[in-house]
């Protein structure tokens, strides 16, 4: 039987029929004529416009090597992470279906910036004197910046998972946090901690940090550069970071490192990556329970809450009590980044679908909002905690994580917090004009970004790495929501959470094929409804619809019109005749499969 099937495959592929089509578990043909709706034409136009705008941006700010045309620096103001952030959202844009030119450009930018910042060296900052990157990874820095700099890389696998260099790096980068590299012993398995806020390919920094460590080498400022924090002198740059000292011990933002292990697991299937990731996330879950439902912002080297911050659970750089002075104005600035820890818990949910990784964040929201205080007769809710208790009160309740919690859980009680959101109103049938409105908004955003770059007067020697970022034209929010039923991952190195993904079995690539548009109309805990349209009036199209960003869900069946087709797998092959379309409702079991970076024809 195997020999006969192999012979059939050889004969059919010799006639130009892709093997991917033949291997698809289930298939449907859509033959109902459907005039292309306005949203469908807008969607195709936005994909094409994004591609053209990204090409113009890339040609303006990158050279033929993929180097960013800027002054290279180390630091929290401007550094290696900012260089590659200039192509943020490009991996998702390509995975949605934009031209292969987008993949080629962001791949060149990634490779170029690795070389550029390995060659770039500091003079005064001690740990970057031999290169700001070592082994193609930041030498040692905090995960606010490490995460930003890995945003593009951690999404590269959506389209480029067979890239040999990507495969090597996924394992190497994850290994830096599993003590597989003797020069980067970032993790303490006994106490289940990452040992410092500063960590990377040269290991943890186990001393107090200085303003110099954060600000980078001396630089001319006034009349040459415009810094993001408004500093006018190098002295102000150092002063901005003068209190950023207490970095020893673990902090919730280090949970962003679990995305490296998740990618390595999805690429290789090796259990060691899952084991480390769940061990570390479970440690933080335990700490939240021990700390009255609030995630602590310092874990000492002995594994005890607050022990590296004078016993204060809220201590340390970027902690609940981390309020500093703005040197230019003297105003207070509250810089608490505990919220980055949520990404780790979302990664655990991707693997397990277990609500115990969402409940701690619900409990934290409840615990903080219980500290409501009446100010001028109105309730106010805190965001910070210091030696004298809760402070920094706001008129709106603390709601960190509510959108992510509802998206993952799909529980009605979690939906209450997001019911007023425009996208969720649309999914509930309350805002039918949303698709066209949000697509047109993204088109306008592309236009405005390109107008900005065309009027940009900076030159390579007056430009810092983060300066072009405000002109990055990639505008994907509407496409991600409407096509994939997806949630934007932010720019902190997260993986992608989406209900559907599309693949082109003819071109053998990620992304929806040319001419096809998709509109997710409804999401429930166990179903998704999508309207597929072939806008081409002359050509049939083939596509594969996948359950989840990484095949982590299972399609049970699909209903189109009066016909239900059994699937019981992660993908469906669809053929759309010219000018045809149909509404498909998939019943599904979410988080029921091991997520993978493999494309459907390799699964």
Keywords:
single chain; 603 residues; alpha+beta; 36% helix; disordered N terminus
What is the topological layout?
Elements: H1 2-14, H2 19-23, E1 27-30, H3 38-61, H4 80-85, H5 90-96, H6 100-119, E2 133-134, E3 137-138, H7 143-149, H8 153-160, H9 164-175, E4 187-188, E5 193-194, H10 211-215, H11 234-240, H12 258-268, H13 271-290, E6 323-325, E7 332-334, H14 341-352, H15 359-369, E8 373-375, E9 378-380, E10 384-386, E11 389-391, H16 402-409, H17 412-415, H18 422-427, H19 434-454, H20 477-484, E12 486-487, E13 497-498, E14 500-504, E15 509-510, E16 516-524, E17 527-534, E18 541-547, E19 554-560, E20 563-569, E21 571-576, E22 581-589
Parallel strand pairs: 1-21
Antiparallel strand pairs: 2-3, 4-5, 6-7, 8-9, 10-11, 12-13, 14-15, 14-18, 16-17, 17-22, 18-21, 19-20, 19-22
Helix pairs in contact: 3-19, 5-6, 5-8, 9-12, 12-13, 13-14, 19-20
